[in-house]
Structure formats: structure tokens, C-alpha cells
Amino acid sequence: MNQQPTTSIEDRDLIRRLLLRQEPAWLEFVQKFERLVWSQVSRTANRMNIPVSKAEIEDICALVFASLLKSNMRSLRSFNGKSRLSTWLTVVSRRIGMRELGKKTRQLARESLQQDSVPAQEPDALSRMVQVEDRKRLHSTLESLGNEDKEILELFYDQNMGYKEISATLGISVNTVGPKLTRAHNRLRNRMRWS
Predict the structure, then answer these.
(1) Are the C-beta atoms of 180 and 172 separated by less than 8 Å?
(2) At what angle do helices 85-115 and 54-78 cross, to 10 degrees?
(3) Which residues lie below 8 Å from residue 110, measured CB to CB, with a gap of 6+?
């Protein structure tokens, strides 16, 4: 059976016009997909249990759109039309959201470590103690995960590796990195919730 590409003619035409740099095409693209990108970044933050402001979500959404223009629109040129454009953009948004939110998590952890050296008599010493306990609980829960989950989470969050680097390190396809990372993160979150 000959399988047809699932991208609509309208979306294929939009991509074609984007790659030809026709001026109204970019505005049309952003207007068509900005809500989808926003919802994916917001959902990713919720799944990762990371509090983000509206401004932070907007910044990450801007990074998603900027990534599509980067390197002479290399990402858009790689779109093969075998899936719907909205499905492809959902994956791109989730990956970039996870990467940027991971950076935020690492930054918060660094700030928390720096605050731990402040004397306990300060007004928010109790909240810092709670943060230290949360980090200990996170570390303990991470250690209780299987090796595969622990390794992929550490590569992504601790070593700040991208999907291609993780793929090469673990010897898996780039397309399986995202789902494996999502499942590992969900297992970690569920264990944290019940510990």
C-alpha cells in the first residue's frame, strides 16, 4: 500500500513559502502555531513540576520559533512531511521546553546551594532547610530509579547534553531520546510524589 504524507497541502505550501522567505509566510506561521507552542511549553513545565511565569513561557516560545530560523532554517528544511506539521512542531516545542526548563532547574539548584552557606538565623532559613531536604529526597529518589532512567536524566540535566549527544553516548536513535527522557522524568516525578 502506498502511504501518502500526512502533511496537509496547506502546510506544505506554508513551509515552501517560508523556505522561499516570502514575507507574509513567517507571520502566518507564527499566528497559526503560537498557541500550540505556548501550550506545549506550558504542559512541559507542568509535567516537570517547574513553576514558570508567563514571561518565562514567552521567552521559551520565542526560542522555539528562533530555532526554526537558525542556520538558514535547517530545522524547517529537515521537516519531511511524513507527519502533520503540528505534530512535528509539538515535538520541537517539547524538546526545547525540556532543555530550557532543565537549565532553569540547574540554575535554581546552584542558587539553592549558594544559599545553604548563609547563616541559619536569617528569616528564610526554614525555607532553605526545606530546599536542602528536597534536594536530598530528589537525589535519593534518583538513585532508586533504574540505571537507564538515571543515566538519561543525568546526561540531560547534569551534563547538559542535547538529544544528539545523548543518542551517541547511549547508542540509541535520536528519535527515541525524547520518549525515553519523558518516561524517565515521569517515573522520577511519580516516585517523588509518593516518597
Answers:
(1) yes
(2) 130
(3) none
Q: What gap in Å lies between CA 84 and CA 75, rounded to an integer?
A: 15
pLDDT, tens digit (0-9, with 9 covering 90-100), for 46-86: 887 778 889 999 999 999 999 998 888 888 888 888 888 99
Contacts of 115 (CB under 8 A, 6+ apart): 128, 131
Give every CB contact of residue 15 below 8 A, 6+ residues apart in sequence.
7, 76, 79, 81, 85
C-alpha cell at 84: 502533520
Q: What is the pTM of this model?
A: 0.58
**How many Å apart are CA 68 and CA 63, to the nearest integer?**
9
Nearest to 36 by CA among 104, 102, 99, 85: 85
Report pLDDT digits (tens) over 162-191: 888 888 888 888 888 888 888 887 777 777
Enter the C-alpha cell of residue 172.
540509541
Reading the block at residue 175, the C-alpha cell is 528519535
Helix spans in the chain (H): 9-19, 23-47, 54-78, 85-115, 125-144, 147-153, 163-170, 174-194
87 backbone dihedrals φ, ψ, rounded to 5°: -65, -45
